[in-house]
Amino acid sequence: MKEEYTTPRIEIVEFDTEDVITTSSKSAKVNDDGSIDLPIINMN
Description:
The chain has 44 residues and is largely without helices or strands. The protein is built from no helices and 2 strands. Strands 1-2 form a two-stranded antiparallel sheet. The chain is elongated, with a radius of gyration of 20 Å.
């Protein structure tokens, strides 16, 4: 059996910004001014 290596394909996306905030939480609340209230995370 011959094994073949295939180079993975990737896509690099560049953003022209200094501040990027992301969240995947469904409990985050978007305010009227566009700001986002994130849930508190306990680090205990």
